[in-house]
Amino acid sequence: MTERTLEWGQTPWDSLSREELLREVQRYYAALTETASVLKQQRDADGGAPFWSIACGGSGGMALAVAESVLKRVDTDDRQRESTFRAFFRYAYELLFPDVPHRTRWAMCDTCGRMIGHPESRVGLACGSVTGAPCSGTMRAITWDDLAPKLEARADRWNIGFDDVARLPPGLEKAAQWLEYALGWPGEHHKQWFMERALEALEVDLAPLAEELRELGSGTVDGDAWRPGIAP
Ligand SMILES: [Zn+2]
Predict the structure, then answer these.
(1) Å from CA of 131 to ligand 1 middle
(2) C-alpha of residue 169 to centroid of ligand 1, in Å
(3) Residue 222: predicted pLDDT
């Protein structure tokens, strides 16, 4: 943002594009969440000090009240705040605040799609040495593209290829993409293969699940052994 003297009625954000404004909102939300969390810890440690009392006009209490007033417009409770954090802000912190030292640095492998967070940057290292996976890829820094919603791709299920889906980090988006394939692909064993990938994307352990299905006498069981789906 350029430094200039504002005229009456102007604000520093008036000439920003929608994208620039959105990033600013994300920065403010992230900074305010951290600030409110620290203020709450301090308030709880201080007990009933007048500084934290709104009735006494305490500036700590007032600061926390205005912070919570803003944050509640996004998340109604701490549980929702946690899911907002996990959906985006956990990974976006180092992109939103490039000038701040971070507790977790994220790196991504384009070959296998694994994403890993570590206190020290893993960028430039061999994927196998970082993730322990049998992968020959190299870790790179995450970008805004990695965090972009994939809604358009989901709308057209044939628009995003297997490799693209495999590269997504584990989570709901990846599972939804595999399920899109499962719903549209002919052949029961192929559908099953996609569903297994969806469960893996949700980090479900398939072995105990296969055991449960075996006990149910599932038709996908061959004799006593679980028969995995067939890749299309
Ligand atoms: Zn890899």
Answers:
(1) 7
(2) 11
(3) 53
> How many whole angstroms from 40 Cα to the centroid of ligand 1?
40
Q: How far is the CA of 123 from the centre of ligand 1 (A)?
A: 12
Integer Cα distance of 19 and 175 in angstroms? 28
CA of 18 to the centre of ligand 1 (A): 35
* Residue 201 near residue 171, CB atoms below 8 Å: yes
The segments of the chain whose pLDDT lies below 50 read 152-158, 221
Paired with 222 in beta bridges are 225
The amino acid sitting at 194 is F
| CA of 180 relative to ligand 1 center, distance in Å | 24
